[in-house]
Amino acid sequence: MPPPRKPRLDPSIFNLPVEKMKTGYYSDKYFVRARDLLLKDKHRPCVTMQVFGKAHAYLGGSDEAIAILKLCSERWEELQVSALYDGDEIAPWETVLLIEGPYDAFANLETLYLGVLARRTKVGTNTHRVVEAAKPKQVMFFPARHDHWLVQTGDGYAAHIAGAIGVSTDAQASWWGSEGIGTVPHALIAAYRGDTVLASQKFAEHMPDSMRLITLVDFENDCVGTSLKVARALGQRLYGVRIDTSETLVDRSVIPQMGTFKPTGVNPRLVWNVREALDREGFKHVKIVVSGGFNVEKIRQFEEQEVPVDMYGVGSSLFQGRFDFTADVVRVEGKPCGKVGRAYRPNPRLERVE
Questions:
Q1: Does the predicted model carry a pTM greater than 0.85?
Q2: Cis peptide before 348 (omega within 30 of 0)
Q3: What is the CATH number that goes with domain 135-319?
Q4: Which of 82, 269, 275, 281 is the most exposed place for a label (fewest CB within 10 A)?
């Protein structure tokens, strides 16, 4: 057998609540009762559990699912587990995880490994799609505020595997040893009485020179004017400006140009206005980051129109959709035994987990 293509994450990195998981605290109750019944009856059939999804996707949560099996099953040495890798492209009905061993040893873990596969695959697939739509432009992963903080670590890793160049929190970046990135936020600008230039200058004064300085420039709904003021004040220290105009507003620079396009929010004309203004004054080095309502479709529209965006910040759209997984016993003691419609489907791409 060839060596694994890449190292899997060490189970310890997931910081799992192992004892609670073992007891079934996070599991559907019928799986816990099934495990308890088998133990009481001293019935230990060796089963083959097959896991698959029903949609074309990019797999996430594989290493996390394996960690759950390694740390929370009764005896890991009793199990034989084969799996695909995080980031693998998968087809509908393709087997992504195969577990063989006494059913009581892992019956109570089905809810857990299916849940992490579903969650991380959703985030990874959505991120992969926006990364593909934006190429060769960069995508920053900004959805932390749209969900519970506990999901950040695994979501950030799923986005990283999918190709996002940056995440917004340290938790999201922790599994590969990085840290969060960000811009001068609206709240900091407000703290300096709405003075974007002053807030940006204070950032430059107190933050390391190695930290990219990207400033939000829509606080006064005048992205062109604010971008120029910040660029004049900071010069080469300014890495980029971020346009985040509300979907209900029309930027000041766009008002005279209205009539043939949707003028609200972050639209192509607004980006062109900022780019042209910066270039006229010699600030060609300043990057333009856009955010606010961006998804695959909007990014594709911008790219087809060759809008001069350097980076896309994408948020809530990365949590949309469903990528559910199903687990079925398909063999017992090596012989076919599964509900109608569920048969063993070997997958040569699976690799044995040690």
A1: yes
A2: no
A3: 3.20.20.70
A4: 281
